[in-house]
Amino acid sequence: MDFDQMLATWRTQDAAPLYGVNQAALRQALQTEESSVRRKRRRDMWIICVGLGGTAVIGGFWIAISIANGWPVIYTVAAAVGFATGALYVGAYGISRWREAQHERNFGGTLQEEVKRGLWRVDLELSRFGNWTSASLQIAPILLSAMLISWAMSGSQGHVPWSSYVVGACAMVYLVRYARRYARQKLEPRQRRLRELLDALDARE
Amino acid sequence: MPVPERDGVFQGWIGAHKAILFKVARAYGATHSDREDLFQEIALQLWHSVEAWRGDCAESTWIYRVALNTALAWRRKEHKHGQGRQDIEAATALLTAPCMHDPRLDWIYQRISELDEANRSLALLMLDGFSYRDMSQILGLTESNVGVKINRIKAALAAQLAKEEHHGL
Known about the structure:
Largest interface: A-B, 39 and 56 residues
Helix content of chain A: over 70%
Largest sheet of chain B: none
Number of strands of chain A: 1
Shape of chain B: globular
Number of helices of chain B: 7
Oligomer: heterodimer
Low-confidence stretches of chain B: 81-91
Order of helices and strands of chain B: HHHEHHHH
Structural class of chain B: mainly alpha
Largest sheet of chain A: none
Strand content of chain B: under 5%
Distance between the termini of chain A: 32 Å
Structural class of chain A: mainly alpha
Order of helices and strands of chain A: HEHHHHH
Radius of gyration of chain B: 17 Å
Distance between the termini of chain B: 49 Å
Strand content of chain A: under 5%
Number of strands of chain B: 1
Number of domains of chain A: 1
């Protein structure tokens, strides 16, 4: 076999592929993948829309009640703050998703760029998980509106039940611990693998 | 992109270019179960990539890029965590029995498997007739670097061919 014959042999695979594909098994794998993607999107949206959007809706409802009943203005202000923080977070989430999509388009089409894109996604997730600042930002709107409504209902300043602070602090500690475990077990190994791969690709040059 | 439309594009790619997936899976997977695993991984990544495809390169170039990228990442992962997959996993049989068996192809794949991972990508692209420009775009190398590496691969293959001619290849 000479070089040209080798090329001709290689090209026989295009006409008569090496394997057949079990279409049913492939379809099943794709459906599993699709449902996994959908599940993740639904979970994200549920957290954002129900958790924080719900806070905004309750705040809006409270504003309407306090105006309709002619309650003191401070009640309306308290509810408005809860509404605004919830709505602000939902809006910020939407803008953040849009900016991420824009940024991802800046990467090129080479293997290195693909790996860099993957690394960027992991770095982004790591920056969001497991630190007190991001946990505070997620908990703050719910905690703030709950505390304000509780304060407004109590009718006197400084009468917020101490248990609210304990529940808020526990939620924040749980969130940070959960996020750190997720980052340690899933994200950091993936980040290491991508960095190694990028180093290997760069070393080829 | 709606799911039916994405599925349609994906099925079209698989129908027209499945040979690329087989070649990459065979070049990077040592055993049949490895190839099954890698084939599935490439197919899933390809399905995900449909939305990112902007049509600014040939379909085969895009598919090769996704397939090689997936194969390189898969190899890293397998080296660290995936040793010793059991053949029993092949019970789901994504790839059906080989449709053909040509010892000359076995020989070519054996030579490819002896190359390092990066040169393996180049060898596959060279054998499939991609230009230096396409290779440089897919792999992120300069065209001159591609040229140097391809010449070395060709020389090594030619030397092997000459050496093993008496085996009746």
